[in-house]
Amino acid sequence: MSKITASITSVHGYVPEKRLTNADLEKLVDTNDEWIVSRTGIKERRIAAEGEALSDFGVKIVEGICKKRGISPEELDMIIVGTITGDYRFPSTSNVICDKVGAKNAWGYDVSAACSGFLYALDSGKQYIENGTCKKVIVIGADHMSSILNYEDRATCIIFGDGGGGVLLEPDTEGYGIQDSILKADGSGRHYLLQAIGGSAEPVTKENACTPGMYVHQEGQTVFKNAVRNMADVSAEIMEKNELSSEDINWLVPHQANLRIIDATARRMGLDKEKVMINIEKFGNTTAGTIPLCLWEWEDKLKKGDNVVLAAFGGGFTWGAIYLKWAYTAK
Description:
Blueprint: E1 5-14, E2 18-21, H1 22-26, H2 33-40, E3 44-47, H3 54-69, E4 78-82, H4 93-101, E5 107-111, H5 117-130, E6 137-144, H6 154-157, E7 162-172, E8 177-185, E9 193-194, E10 217-218, H7 220-241, E11 251-254, H8 259-269, H9 280-283, H10 290-297, E12 307-314, E13 318-325
Parallel strand pairs: 4-5, 4-6, 11-12
Antiparallel strand pairs: 1-7, 2-3, 6-7, 8-13, 9-10, 12-13
Helix pairs in contact: 3-4, 7-8
């Protein structure tokens, strides 16, 4: 019997309509377009409509995937969601999406790994395909970052946006799909990028409600240094482990945190920019959503058999890389 691998067979993304440009941010905080672009590469980001929840992103993603694949949500076995901005502390947003989209036969859960959430969730989803437990697993990476941002803090509000994407995993016996993954974590980095208030360590009280700890806090220089080193290192590591040269790689799909981090990772892998998926200028950092958003935008350029490396670094600290062989050429 041929080895079963988990292949991506459909992909879809979603971003809200509202655009928040650098010019808009100039009216909110002490910043300007040149400063933002030179340090991050971001020109605009998308912001959810009032009343629009993360599960609403998920519904559009699942419906888009099912339409492309020609299947019903009732055929899905699982929906796994990588996110840090779920609808509620509980139940899981996966649970809510299953209900809203009519995936009556599916179960699932959320994965909290910040910007590495999609990679962690994808590696989790592949296990259920490879061991034969499931035949159709949707993995979503998405975040509603505007819900936890302080728009008076220029260190964070210029970076993040709302949106995400997802993929359908199905069994493959031809050698395509996920080939290898390296996932890592270092909890000592938690203080440099976090939302301090709202969990059991520091619950919400009358005294701390609406204080800065309620929102995303980031110590930019420390996060940047760790991201450059670890995202580049793990990308090079997965190439070496699988005996891949830069010529063997068709695409790098990096987390869209900062253009300088992306460039450093590509240089470490020996890749020209033509092989790197970049859309940070349009969407900013959608946290767990950046990698599937890139796959969605580049779907028509991906060819069956392409060697693809996904790489991310996020709060926690968390980071990792996944190597896969693309399983289809889009029609």
